[in-house]
Amino acid sequence: MAKLYVQTAPPPDLNKNTEWFMYPGVWTTYILILFFSWLIVLSVFGCTPGMAWTVVNLFHFAVTYHFFHWKKGTPFAEDQGIYNTLTWWEQMDNGKQLTRNRKFLTVVPVVLYLIASHTTDYQHPMLFLNTLAVFVLVVAKFPNMHKVRIFGINAGS
Amino acid sequence: MVRLPYTTALTTLFSYGLLFAFGQLRDLFRKLLDWFRSKDLKGYAPICLGLEDFYVRRLYLRIQDCFGRPIASAPDAWIDVVERYSNDNNKTLHRTSNSTKCLNLGSYNYLGFAAADEYCTPRVIESLKKYSPSTCSVRVDGGTTQLHAELEELVARFVGKPAAVLFGMGYVTNSAIIPCLIGKGGLLISDSLNHNSIVNGARGSGATVRVFQHNSPSHLEEVLREQIAEGQPRTHRPWKKIIVIVEGIYSMEGELCKLPEIIAVCKKYKAYTYLDEAHSIGAIGKSGRGVCELLGVDPADVDIMMGTFTKSFGSCGGYIAASKEIIQYLKYTCPAHLYATSMSPPAVQQVISAIKVILGEDGSNRGAQKLARIRENSNFFRSELQKMGFEVLGDNDSPVMPIMLYNPAKIPAFSRECLRQNVAVVTVAFPATPLLLARARICISAAHTREDMIKGLEVISKVGDLVGIKYFPTEPPKLAKEAHKKPVAVILP
């Protein structure tokens, strides 16, 4: 099989915490990780495909909420703390809203929700949990929520 | 422009994700296990905020033995690397008293002045006896010796500018000069891959900083037009000053700067130019005068030229060369000149002798020989590596050649395996390079002989096969003669 090559110019993003997201292959890796985690959940728990998708959806909710919208700052000290009050989502693309990457990341939870609710035949309690997950994630990614801290939660450094 | 196989991009992202996940899990368990242990900070705040040291603790320390290796000899073509061992999985390293002699492919020893030289070393020892190792004073008090004045004139003459000023440290030269040249209300436009010293100086100056896409004069023009039209943020007043900062050779890419086009753009929009020639001065150009000579740019067109003595001249320190008025201004505003100890006199003498050798003023043609040798060596090494199928960045004639590794696991694999076979290489990862683009950076020197380079190539080829970094198809050896003009790994438009 011929090797596929991708070519890219280095993106002019100074924030090393978010720069890696602008390289080719990131979207594919994200989708592949979700798919393989569904397979792993199916093999470990031996449940129905619908339950497995619900488990993946909820786990995805927990992980992405924690790392994109809760943890602030960067995991290294070179930038001398200029991003210490911004979550990863707010640092993305230098704060510019509605870029391609942001739109992609907003669509993924919605697609997961649709797959999970379809494969569980819209039964409760899975439907409720899935809906809650997608609601929180999508609202957190709205442009109007940029730098907003509701009731001061997570406002401290 | 980097070109990588798609599967490599996917696996690299996945590997980093896995490392990150394991690091977070370990942190979680550490937090749980330490929940009930009293921290007793006595009311003081913790030194590191939650996530700040995550990269160092969970990723860097795992492969710490690949970085910061102590050496026990001068960094010539062959170098003695001290052996270290660790009892707790690389969290702490202990030196032994053994050292192994390795081929040195990591030092910035472009012209071979790092080891004892027949012209330079006797004169350095003489100046050590006459002027002692330190001037024990700042330049403005009692730290300007005859040697300093001589070197400033010599550097100005060498580079082609009217005047120059010296500093004791190369990093400080950038980070202390940029705040003197520009302040709040000014605009700094710097290349996206500029060195950390420039980034630090830009942050410390208080000016607005904008970045343009690496080595792209068209994007620079776009950024300049946008910024000049908008003016200062919020008030929209015109900018007080605009300075564009570029480097001669980018140390992580080995690429030359597109200097003529960038100067043309800056002249059109009346912006000042600042050229950092840390890696290119003394190493490229027909007589070693750097990237201006190589690309045919008149030094009078570049407003401020900066360089260091660490790379090609085998010493330490940096200089700024510009017009007489700018240098006079810097001499009474720059804190590195007013408050920092002046350069050590033997180091100054080393640079004076090295420049004399390069210019041929020592009465022999060793300078010209060294320059020809480093050009030959770099081109030979680079073309051989490309023939073997490695992805090597950098332009022709540049002595810096990064070999792309990409996957985080290949960094320690390449480094340790090469060390086992007695070749010392420097591997660079995040955050000095972008996350996905980890690389092993080879620096060729004029002191390397053909045999040294062939041995280096053999070892790198063997290790490259083991580690799996030959991303491009190899050129079969019998076609090598006809394919001399057309390289297999097509370098991009």
From TrEMBL, chain A:
User: Membrane-spanning regions, if any?
Assistant: 21-45, 51-68, 126-143
What keywords appear on the UniProt entry? Membrane, Transmembrane, Transmembrane helix
Give membrane topology per the record. Multi-pass membrane protein
Q: Which InterPro entries match?
A: ORMDL (IPR007203)
GO terms under cellular component? endoplasmic reticulum membrane
Record's subcellular location: Membrane
The UniProt entry, under PANTHER family, shows: ORMDL PROTEINS
Give the protein name, as stated in the record.
ORM1-like protein 3
Q: Which species does the entry assign this protein to?
A: Ananas comosus var. bracteatus
UniProtKB/TrEMBL annotation, chain B:
Recorded hits in InterPro entries, A to Z, give:
Aminotrans_II_pyridoxalP_BS (IPR001917), Aminotransferase_I/II_large (IPR004839), AON_synthase_class-II (IPR050087), PyrdxlP-dep_Trfase (IPR015424), PyrdxlP-dep_Trfase_major (IPR015421), PyrdxlP-dep_Trfase_small (IPR015422)
Q: Which gene underlies this protein? A: LOC109726813
Q: What is this protein called?
A: serine C-palmitoyltransferase
The source's domain of life comes to Eukaryota
In terms of Pfam families, this protein maps to:
Aminotran_1_2
Boundaries of every Aminotransferase class I/classII large domain copy: 101-460
> GO molecular function: any one?
pyridoxal phosphate binding
Enzyme category, top tier: transferase
Report membrane topology.
Single-pass membrane protein
Q: Which reaction equations make up its catalytic activity?
A: L-serine + hexadecanoyl-CoA + H(+) = 3-oxosphinganine + CO2 + CoA
- Gene Ontology annotations for the cellular component aspect, listed alphabetically: endoplasmic reticulum membrane; serine palmitoyltransferase complex
